[in-house]
Amino acid sequence: MIGISLNGAGGMTSVVRTYQNCGFFDEWDVSYLSSYERPGLGSQLRVMIRALVIFIHMLIRREVALVHVHSASRGSFWRKSIFCAVARAFRIPYIFHVHSGEFPTFVRSECGPLARCWVRHTLRNARSVITLTSSWRAEFAELVPGATIAVLGNPVFMPERISALRENVGHVLFLGRLHEKKGVFDLVRAIPSVLEQIPEAKFTLAGDGDLHGVAGQAEMLGVSHVLNLVGWVDGAAKEALLASADLLVLPSHYEGFSVSIVEAMAAGVPVVSTAVGGVPDVLEDGACGVLVAPRDVKALADALINTLLDTEANERMRERAFVRAKERFSIPKILGALGNIYHAAKLDKDKA
Known about the structure:
By secondary structure, this protein is an alpha/beta fold. The protein folds into two domains: about 1-155 and about 330-345, Rossmann fold, CATH 3.40.50.2000; about 170-330, Rossmann fold (3-Layer(aba) Sandwich). Helices cover about 50% and strands about 15% of the residues. The chain is built from 15 helices and twelve strands. A six-stranded parallel sheet has the order 9-8-7-10-11-12, sandwiched between helices. It has a four-stranded parallel sheet with strand order 3-4-5-6, with helices on both faces. The two termini are about 20 Å apart.
């Protein structure tokens, strides 16, 4: 398995860590190679070359039966496509697992004719292209005709039951990278309107990225006193934040499959999100959460206010979201489905 460093932050890392922590690596005898680390171009290049050398050495020693690459778009794709090409040269099947909601835009708008041919060649030759939602599968079928496409959501730990609804409303939680594409500045711009209706509201933004820019905008709008920037959190710290939250918000401009949304659903936390990427496939508007258009600050503020104040609707959404998460994204269900994809890929190899 090839992907980003497991010491880093982000949804892709969280997913792979779940595979590892829940025994999937042991069950399938998975070796993990990190092809990317965030700091510095020099260290990134060293990590990539080191991973490629180890990969080729394993192939020469016939230690690899199947390759599973985790990819975003742009540079992530180009790096992973090299590993895929090497796997093809050794006649080893590979699975291409796409995590980025921007991948179709990257292919259609940012790649020239030759680059698009390389993308399609890489994906068509995969034993399976894993997409995160059904709507993605349809889009990838159009983007790469002839590719074998599977749908696999991201796994989430499910508690036995959801906690009781909190009596105090007002704690809004954001989990994700603090970046313009995640809509975090739209969220800060929505805060003054929320405070007009719910003066006790508090906002916790947990993630790395442009903390300075977010803090500066909050200062300019006079809402710094209700904004808490805590940096990236994981594990018990994330669970504690979800337990204290009255609502999770994800106002992304682009999104693939949000791990934080499914984690909130599993924890019984109501969700307000933008209707982008695979989010509508995960979060049914009005039933499991509330969806708004991206970049619409007024609609975002109204959704936050209404969701926080309507406790009866909150309770219904919490219960439906919990059931939906358990049925579709529990760890046993997702890892079982991934195992089936592995079985199919290996059987195809045996027939070849």
